[in-house]
Amino acid sequence: MSEDLRAYSRARAEGHTQAFLMTAITNASSASAIRDLDLRILATNQGFVAVSWATKTGFGIRTNTAGIETDRRETTTTVNGKQITTVTAHVPKTNELCRWVNHRIIDGEIAWDYHMQFKADGSLNYSSSSKCDARDYDQKYKQIMEDVTNDVTAQMQQDGSFGKFGSCHHFWKLKKDKLKAKGIDWRSPTELNPGTSYD
What we know:
The chain is an alpha+beta fold. The protein contains 6 helices and 6 strands. The strands form 2 sheets. It has a 4-stranded antiparallel beta sheet with strand order 1-4-5-6, covered by helices on one side. A two-stranded antiparallel sheet has the order 2-3. Strand 5 (110-118) and strand 6 (124-133) form a beta hairpin. Helix 4 (142-159) crosses helix 5 (167-181). The longest helix has 18 residues, at 142-159. The two termini are 41 Å apart. The model has no long low-confidence stretch (mean pLDDT 90).
């Protein structure tokens, strides 16, 4: 029970609403009861998730090219008091078709984007999540977001900074400033995902 309370507290600190977490808790059932395979995997790998709130936002196939390393993992173990690091690399012998899928959950002022990448055999390779401001997907703000995005893009194209390495930070700052001038306190991905590197 104490681990559940800690997980609940962490989820609240990350920005999830009480309503979302109560739905996740009260609707929790065994993973096998979730019919959609991707949602089942999402629920299994992401802790408190109200899968009924999830919307599939994209899916597709990625090709792992034969002879090119696609995955590298390091594991460290202690043997006889010494730390030993083992590196495992995956280099496919033939081209591999690997499925990916994205889901989005909008919970209050934050939208969570979940990405799952699968191996050629269909098993999960990795999953990741990131947060963004929910207003980016709110129909109420759709026109103003489009106008500000177009304005910022035009400004950056004019000053030559658009599309350069690291220009997303300049883009987000301009977007934040322009939205603030319109009375909208928008939060950038860097604010919502501290510790994540963006180029």
